[in-house]
Write a structure and sequence with these properties.
Number of strands: 28
Distance between the termini: 68 Å
Structural class: mainly beta
Pfam families: HgmA_C (PF04209), HgmA_N (PF20510)
Protein name: Homogentisate 1,2-dioxygenase
Organism: Vicugna pacos
Strand order of the largest sheet: 1-16-20-13-10-15-8-7-28
Pathway: Amino-acid degradation; L-phenylalanine degradation; acetoacetate and fumarate from L-phenylalanine: step 4/6
CATH superfamily of one domain: Jelly Rolls
CATH topology of one domain: Jelly Rolls
Enzyme class: oxidoreductase
Radius of gyration: 24 Å
Bound molecules: fe (ii) ion
Oligomer: single chain
C-alpha cells in the first residue's frame, strides 16, 4: 500500500509538472482588434496564400468563416475570421433543448426592487458533494433588454468545481466578458488556448466555441452584451496612450487536436436565452490555422494605466473604463467595464473616497480581491452590489467620518485590491436566483448608511479642519 501511494504521488508530480510546463509556455499574439494570422506549428503553411477559400485547402482542411459583424459594416467595425479546420462546425447531430439551470433572460421573474442591493460572496458548490462545470455553474443575476433585437445585457455569476471535459459552449446571443475571481481558467477555444487568472479578464465573442478547465473551486463574474462588441474607449484629451493600451490585449495562437469522439462530443449553445446541446464525433478544437480580427482575447488588469486627479476633486469614474460596449447613442454604453485599480490619491482639499451620488446608469460592482475603499466591511471578494438608476449610494458612515478628518498626504489607494463595475445605461432587473435562491442577498445593507448624522452648523460656515 505504501509503495502504491508513492507511485501515485510520483505520477501526480509528473502530471503536475507537465501541466505547469504547459501553462508556463502559453503563447499569445498581441494587440486589440488586430488582423492576426496563426498556424499550429505542426502544420506549417496551413493558411492559404493570397485567398481565403481555395478549391482545396492546404492539408485538405475545410475553410470556414466566422462573422462577428454584418458583412456590410464599415471597415472600422467589420469583424470576421477565417478558420481552417479538420471538419466544419456544421458536422453535428441536431440540437436539443437541455436543462436551463439558473440561466435566464426573463427579466420579470420577480417584482422590481429599487433598493441598494448587496450580495455576500456567492457560494461555490463543493466538488465532493456535486460536480459542477462552467456551464452548469452559470447563474444569471440581473440584466435588461432583449436578445432577439440584439440590445441588452446580462450579469452572470459562475460557480464551478469541475472541468468541462468533452463539452464546449458557444453563445449565439452575445459576447461574454469573463472576470475570474477565484481559481484560474484554462480556456480551450477554436483559436487556441488561454490561461486566465484572477486579476485578468477575457472576452469570448459571440459564436466562438470554448471549453473551460478549472483546478479548484472556482468563481467569477460574466458581463454578457447582446448585439455589440467591446471596444477600447476613446481617449479624448488624454491623447494616444493610457488606460488599457491596445498592445496588452493577448490573443491565443492556433492549436488543434484531432480527437475523434465515437461516444460524442457535446456542443452546448445558448440561443435566444435557452440552452441546447448537440453531439458531434470530433473535438471542436480542430482549427489548424486561422486569420482575421474576430478572436477571443485576454487582458491583465495590472497593465491598466490609471488617470486620476492631481489637483483637487474627482474625475468621474469613466476614467477607469477598460472596455466599452457602445449603444447607438453617442457616449451612452450598453455596458462599460470599469476597474478601481491600485493608485495614488493626492487630491488636495478634497473628500477623497467616491462621492455620494445618484446615477442615471445601473452600477453592478464586484470585488476580485482586497477591500474596497468606500466600504471596509460587507462588500467582500466574490460578492457584489447593484445600485440601480437614481438609487442613492456612497460611502458608509464610518468611511465618511474618517475621510472627512483625514490628513491629506499623498497615499496609496486600493493596494492589493481590485474592484470593478459593470455600468449600464439599461435599467437592470434582478432574477429570482439573485434575490432569493442564491440566499446571498445581504438584508442589512441599508444599515451601513443609517449612522450617517447631520453635521450642519448653521452658525459657522467654516467646518473644522482635519484632526
Ligand atoms: Fe456609484
Amino acid at each position: 500500500m505504501h509503495v502504491h501511494i508513492e507511485i501515485l504521488t510520483f505520477l501526480d508530480c509528473q502530471i503536475l509538472l507537465l501541466m505547469v510546463l504547459c501553462l508556463c509556455h502559453m503563447q499569445y499574439l498581441s494587440g486589440f482588434g488586430n488582423e492576426c494570422a496563426s498556424e499550429d506549428p505542426r502544420c506549417p503553411g496551413a493558411l492559404p496564400e493570397g485567398q481565403n477559400n481555395p478549391q482545396v485547402c492546404p492539408y485538405n482542411l475545410y475553410a470556414e468563416q466566422l462573422s462577428g459583424s454584418a458583412f456590410t459594416c464599415p471597415r472600422s467595425t467589420n469583424k470576421r475570421s477565417w478558420l481552417y479546420r479538420i471538419l466544419p462546425s456544421v458536422s453535428h447531430k441536431p440540437f436539443e433543448s437541455i436543462d436551463q439551470g439558473h440561466v435566464t433572460h426573463n427579466w420579470d421573474e420577480v417584482d422590481p426592487d429599487p433598493n441598494q442591493l448587496r450580495w455576500k460572496p456567492f457560494e461555490i458548490p463543493k466538488a465532493s458533494q456535486r460536480k459542477v462545470d462552467f456551464v452548469s455553474g452559470l447563474h444569471t443575476l440581473c440584466g435588461a433588454g432583449d436578445i432577439r433585437s440584439n440590445n441588452g445585457l446580462a450579469v452572470h455569476i459562475f460557480l464551478c468545481n469541475t472541468s468541462m471535459g468533452n463539452r464546449c459552449f458557444y453563445n449565439s446571443d452575445g459576447d461574454f466578458l469573463i472576470v475570474p475571481q477565484q481559481g484560474k481558467l484554462l480556456i480551450y477555444t477554436e483559436f487556441g488556448k488561454m490561461l486566465v487568472q484572477p486579476n485578468e479578464i477575457c472576452v469570448i465573442q459571440r459564436g466562438m466555441r470554448f471549453s473551460v478547465d478549472v483546478f479548484e473551486e472556482t468563481r467569477g463574474y460574466i458581463l454578457e452584451v447582446y448585439g455589440v462588441h467591446f471596444e477600447l474607449p476613446d481617449l479624448g484629451p488624454i491623447g494616444a496612450n493610457g488606460l488599457a493600451n491596445p498592445r496588452d490585449f493577448l490573443i491565443p495562437v492556433a492549436w488543434y487536436e484531432d480527437r475523434q469522439m465515437p461516444s460524442g462530443y457535446t456542443v452546448i449553445n445558448k440561443y435566444q436565452g435557452k440552452l441546447f446541446a448537440a453531439k458531434q464525433g470530433i473535438s471542436p478544437f480542430n482549427v489548424v490555422a486561422w486569420h482575421g480580427n474576430y478572436t477571443p482575447y485576454k487582458y491583465n488588469l495590472e497593465n491598466f494605466m490609471v488617470i486620476n486627479s492631481v489637483a483637487f476633486d474627482h474625475a468621474d469614474p469613466s476614467i477607469f473604463t477598460v472596455l466599452t460596449a457602445k449603444s447607438v447613442r453617442p457616449g451612452v454604453a450598453i455596458a462599460d467595464f470599469v476597474i478601481f485599480p491600485p493608485r495614488w490619491g493626492v487630491a488636495d482639499k478634497t473628500f477623497r473616497p467616491p462621492y455620494y451620488h445618484r446615477n442615471c446608469m445601473s452600477e453592478f460592482m464586484g470585488l476580485i480581491k482586497g477591500h474596497y475603499e468606500a466600504k471596509e466591511g460587507g462588500f467582500l471578494p466574490g460578492g457584489g452590489s447593484l445600485h440601480s438608476p437614481m438609487t442613492p449610494h456612497g460611502p458608509d458612515a464610518d468611511c465618511f467620518e474618517k475621510a472627512s478628518r483625514a490628513k491629506l498626504a499623498p497615499e496609496r489607494v486600493a493596494d492589493g485590491t481590485m474592484a470593478f463595475m459593470f455600468e449600464s445605461s439599461l435599467s437592470m432587473a434582478v432574477t429570482k436566483w439573485g434575490l432569493k435562491t442564491s440566499n446571498c442577498l445581504d438584508e442589512n445593507y441599508y444599515k451601513c448608511w443609517e449612522p450617517l448624522k447631520s453635521h450642519f452648523t448653521p452658525d459657522s460656515r467654516n467646518p473644522a479642519g482635519p484632526d
